[in-house]
Amino acid sequence: MRPNVDISHTLGGRIKDYAEANNLGLSEAYTEVLEAGLDELEN
User: Fold this and answer.
1) What is the tally of structural domains in the chain?
2) What is the DSSP string of 1-43?
3) Is residue 2 in a domain?
4) Residue 1 included in any domain
5) In angstroms, rounded to a whole number, what is the distance separating the alpha carbons of residues 16 and 18?
6) pTM score, two decimals?
7) 25 within some domain
8) Is residue 26 a contact partner of residue 19, using CB atoms and an 8 Å limit?
9) pLDDT for res 4
10) Is residue 35 scored above 80 in pLDDT?
11) What is the pLDDT of residue 1?
12) Which domain holds residue 29?
């Protein structure tokens, strides 16, 4: 189950830009960003 999270327009745009720059789908980009953030928080 995914949480219903409000993402600001600016943050969503940054994720979209990241996806386009790295030839990823939007879902893949969100996954990468979330995993990188969790790794950073856990370390």
Assistant:
1) 1
2) --------HHHHHHHHHHHHHTT--HHHHHHHHHHHHHHHHH-
3) no
4) no
5) 5
6) 0.81
7) yes
8) yes
9) 86
10) yes
11) 61
12) 9-42
Q: How far apart are CA 6 and CA 40, in angstroms?
A: 22
For the chain, what's the residue count? 43
Give CA–CA dist 13/1, Å, rounded: 24
Q: Beta-carbon neighbour count of residue 29 at 10 Å? A: 20
Q: Does the structure show a pLDDT above 80 at 40? A: yes
Q: Which amino acid is at 1?
A: M
Q: Which amino acid, 8?
A: S
Amino acid at 9: H
In tens, the pLDDT along 1-34 reads 667 889 899 999 999 999 999 999 999 999 999 9
| Cα–Cα separations (whole angstroms), residue 19 to 11, 26, 43 | 12, 6, 25
